[in-house]
Amino acid sequence: MVVNDPEVVAELAALYPRYEEALVTNDVPVLTEMFWASPLSIRLGAGENLYGEAEIEAFRLSRPAVGLARRQVRLEIRTFGKDYGSITLEFERDTLNGIVRGRQSQVWVRLDEGWRIVQAHVSILPRS
Q: Quick one: how far is CA 34 from the chain centroid?
């Protein structure tokens, strides 16, 4: 198995900006499209645990669409073979109470319909 095949890394690197733009603009159709449409998909958020496509989409439709902008601090992509990869991100967000730092990890799998996020995790770091 090839780790970090440049072509596969480039594929995920090209997809990620679309996800990030959809996230900060709350483009629910694009976010839904980029996740695996399965009851087996998982998204563990900063304040919610979501199992399956229905829970993930319901969360996205109900969350406030303000204050979502963030700065990418460090983005890392790892791939394993042609069909499996992970993307991790450290980010910062400005709030009324100062800068909030967080992190996000995603597991991406190439399915018949293309690359999809099958599992994701978002967490906020404690203020120092």
A: 9
Q: How confident is the model at residue 114 (pLDDT cuts 50, 70, 90)?
A: very high
Strand-pair category, 114-124 with 42-44: parallel
Q: Which residues pair with 90 in a beta bridge?
A: 74, 103
State the sign of the Cα–Cα–Cα–Cα dihedral 7, 12, 15, 17.
Answer: negative
What is 41-64 written as a DSSP string?
-EEE-SS-EEESHHHHHHHHHHS-
- Whether 75 is covered by a domain: the verdict is yes
pLDDT tens digits for 63-83?
888 888 999 999 999 999 999
In which domain, by residue range, is 66 found? 6-124
Other beta carbons within 10 angstroms of residue 78's beta carbon come to 15
% of the chain residues with pLDDT over 90:
90
What type of residue is 43?
R
